[in-house]
Design brief:
Blueprint: H1 2-18, E1 25-26, E2 34-40, E3 48-54, H2 57-62, E4 70-76, E5 84-90, E6 95-99, E7 113-120, E8 124-125, E9 129-134, H3 146-167, H4 178-193, E10 197-202, H5 209-228, E11 232-236, H6 241-255, E12 267-269, H7 274-288, E13 292-298, H8 302-312, E14 316-321, H9 327-333, E15 336-339, H10 342-351, H11 354-382, H12 387-391
Parallel strand pairs: 1-8, 10-11, 10-13, 11-12, 13-14, 14-15
Antiparallel strand pairs: 2-3, 3-6, 4-5, 4-7, 7-9
Helix pairs in contact: 3-11, 4-5, 5-6, 5-10, 7-8, 10-11
């Protein structure tokens, strides 16, 4: 009897070794997992295959002892041979994702693979369940992130609706922004004193959204000073911002009907270095004594130095930035400060462009919807309903 069992083990070992599986012995009573299914992992970028199976009856019967057994996963490009171990998972597990695990075990897209899964305790093993062929591929849509798509679509629909309404002449309310209303007062004061207006568009480059928004405000300021005949000085920190600032100011003077008043020498490139630029602007403020200083753009550590120097000259100062960590310095040293998103709203407020006003209103309504969703989710969670908040979870 013992000789027959030994012969059986040797025969089985030889058989599985010929398939490329690791040598071992068939476990007494170990049964293989059933219902093994392989498929491309949904919604991923490729290079991944998901396996699922039903637990082996031996796994279920092991109970508290099952920590000693595992499922081993083998992969091959051939149904009959060449299988190599790609992973193992503890007993009780019914799924495995075969993803990139190094160059030697990389799952290539659009290549057929076969998988075998068996139960083992390290000494003996069950017969292996087989599945395949299956191939990985890149997916263009991830269903698990459909919630994000829906939120984005709703956002763009709101913007589209409000842009159409603004384009058709509908009156869309935008509350007064005191700092922007004060710009005309500051320009008027500079005109009465016979001094220039200083406009600093931040220290970031032209690809920063705050610099782009600052240029829109600069265009409106240029039109205003052109009507009053007041000099406008624009120190620039980044070389690439110089032509943008020149064209913006020139267009402002042209729109105001005073192109001859445009002075290109007042668009001054100082330095790409943060504090060299700061020292240069401080020099302008101390030498030329502008009556109004406008700091609108992206600012960092230089904000307090600029604002303090301007304050010491007695100029009226208006500042605005989306860098909220710099707002306290502007608040204490300037007469008016655009806080946070007021800076972005300023472009729509000043220009009245239907696209900007529509975008502003669409964004506001999207924020209202999100706040309502937060309140609704908090109430539902309080009463034990979790499906609403789970829907918003990004996978």
């Amino acid at each position: 009897m013992n000789k027959s069992r030994h012969l059986l083990i040797i025969t089985a070992t030889f058989f599985f070794s010929s398939l490329g599986l690791a040598p071992g012995a068939l476990g007494d009573g170990f049964e293989p997992p059933s219902g093994l299914v392989s498929r491309d992992t949904r919604g991923d970028g490729g290079g991944s295959i998901t396996l699922t199976w039903e637990r082996s009856p031996s796994d279920v019967q092991q109970g508290a002892q099952r920590t000693k057994i595992t499922y081993e996963i083998f992969r091959s490009v051939s149904r009959d041979t060449g299988f190599s171990l790609v992973g193992s998972v503890p007993a009780g597990t019914t799924a495995y994702v075969d993803a990139d695990s190094g160059q030697d075990h990389r799952v290539e897209n659009n290549r057929n693979y076969f998988y075998r899964v068996r139960l083992t305790d390290g000494l003996a093993y069950s017969a292996a369940a087989l599945t395949g062929p299956v191939s990985a591929r890149s997916n263009w849509f991830d269903p698990a992130r459909a919630n994000i798509l829906i939120v984005i679509v709703v956002f763009f629909i709101l913007i589209f609706i409000y842009i159409r309404r603004a384009s058709r002449g509908a009156s869309l309310f935008v509350r007064k922004i005191a700092g922007l209303d004060a710009i005309e007062e500051a320009v008027g004061r500079a005109t009465e004193m016979g001094k220039p207006v200083l406009y600093v568009p931040g220290i970031d480059d032209v690809n920063n959204i705050q610099t782009i928004y600052s240029m829109v405000i600069l265009g409106n300021v240029a039109k205003l000073v052109a009507r009053y005949g007041t000099p406008l000085i624009v120190p620039v920190c980044r070389a690439f911002v110089v032509p943008l600032a020149e064209e913006t100011v020139k267009q402002g003077y042209l729109d105001a009907g005073h192109p001859e008043a445009y002075n290109p020498n007042n668009i001054r490139y100082l330095s790409d270095e943060q504090f060299a630029f700061t020292a240069g602007v401080d020099g302008i403020m101390m030498r030329e004594k502008p009556a109004a200083n406008l700091f609108l753009g992206s600012f960092f550590a230089e904000s307090l130095i600029l604002a303090e120097t301007g304050f010491s000259t007695g100029a009226i100062q208006i500042a605005g930035t989306a860098n909220i960590h710099q707002l306290p310095f502007f608040v204490v040293a300037c007469d008016y400060t655009l806080i946070g998103e007021e800076f972005f709203a300023a472009t729509a407020y000043l220009s009245g462009d239907p696209k900007l006003v529509g975008t502003l209103k669409g964004s506001d309504w999207m924020k209202i919807l999100l706040m309502l969703a937060l309140v609704t989710g908090a109430l539902l969670e309080t009463f034990g309903v979790t499906s609403f908040t789970r829907w918003f979870t990004a996978q």
